[in-house]
Amino acid sequence: xxxxxxxxxxxxxxxxxxxxxxxxxxxxxxxxxxxxxxxxxxxxxxxxxxxxxxxxxxxxxxxxxxxxxxxxxxxxxxxxxxxxxxxxxxxxxxxxxxxxxxxxxxxxxxxxxxxxxxxxxxxxxxxxxxxxxxxxxxxxxxxxxxxxxxxxxxxxxxxxxxxxxxxxxxxxxxxxxxxxxxxxxxxxxxxxxxxxxxxxxxxxxxxxxxxxxxxxxxxxxxxxxxxxxxxxxxxxxxxxxxxxxxxxxxxxxxxxxxxxxxxxxxxx
Length: 268
Fold this sequence. Notes:
- This protein starts with 5 loop residues before the first helix and ends with a helix.
- A hairpin with a 2-residue loop joins strand 4 and strand 5.
- The longest helix is centred in the N-terminal third of the chain and has 47 residues, at about 20-65.
- It contains seven helices and nine strands; from the N terminus they run αααβαββββββαββαα.
- The protein has two domains: about 10-60; about 70-265, no CATH class.
- By secondary structure, the protein is an alpha+beta fold.
């Protein structure tokens, strides 16, 4: 009767010549099997740590965003929000995109990639962007289940630089809660004054569109009149116009317009 003792079979296998094809294939199979087991066990074991690291990365990104908004702490206290959520929006449809991690999405890099962005025609590109990323993050601030604020990242060409800002809207999607510029390179003492708290304090309570849905918010010279106008900065006409064009673009159909339409319809 054949010896079926596993230990004896193993010894006979090891006794085979090293150039034996069966021995070579068997060792290759055992090595691959061992490696796959190690990788699988490692993946399962490390998954909680990976999730924790991703969560820390998201929280760090949120902290950076809040730190970049001088008015954010006041807004948070005013509306007593208890949750800040970042979602990625498909700008074409206005719907949320679930297939991309919104917390780590880099909108600036995406705008440079032809496969992840859209070239803008001169007629549409009033903000001077040339290309617009196909997706953009939005920040939802809630109190319990109720949406309190929506924060939109916006950018556009000023006089000497690209202007980067966050526009905070109330839950109606039409009332401005705040506008904060966090990066710009326009003329110090003139266009650069868009970062001054006194000028940014003019924005809360302004409306972006009229009852017909026409975008009317603008920065004007000679004193603002009505809910759709904000006083321009003296000596900074180009920068003021850049802010107006930036907001009109991002609040229109080529920007967050489809998303805001869903927000006003109660679909967000």
